[in-house]
Amino acid sequence: MRIVLLGPPGAGKGTQAKKIAGEFGVPHISTGDMFRKAVAEKTPMGIKADEFMKKGLLVPDEIVVGIVDERLRLPDCQKGFILDGFPRTVAQAESLEEILSKQGLKLDAAVNFEVPQEELIERFTGRRVCESCGASYHIKYNPPKEAGICDKCGSKVVTRPDDRIETVTERLKVYEEQSRPLVQFYKDKGLLIDIDGTKSIDEVFEKIVSRLRGES
Questions:
Q1: Has residue 33 got a pLDDT over 90?
Q2: Hey, which of 32, 43, 63, 190 has its CA 20 to 30 A from 132?
């Protein structure tokens, strides 16, 4: 089972990726983890990527694609993989096709999480984190027993910079400009599976598995 996950930040891709990976017995490969591993292990592409990251620069596509290529050639990917965070652009999607084609492989599906922008903003801006122990909360879905105070250690819970409205809005804007075209790209190839990401975690998971198994 070779799958890519599509959808805006906050749509639940990471949560579902772990569950799908467990269901089908294939690795969950997230862009962040992949980069950190390549840099830590000093792979050829990891060394190149580290040079750009140390300067605060964006890593060029050819290096990103090279790191993905290195990762997908490892033995644990022989039975498949779940790619989370790559591709981010149509150009990267075309490069992924080339990587797989060289191995005589192709994607099985592109799972697209659809969540209205208003809900995504609510998910992000409502998140709170304990500044001491790191416990996570949400003012609507999982509030602390006492407003602003961590249940576990009694410290203050705060909004992370990444969850502020300005940051969230910018991330969603970048998604619409750079990554939204991937939906049509994979639809044209007959690989797209649209999923309603507003449902519960278990409902979303059950629907994904059902669609991947061709049951509905």
A1: no
A2: 32
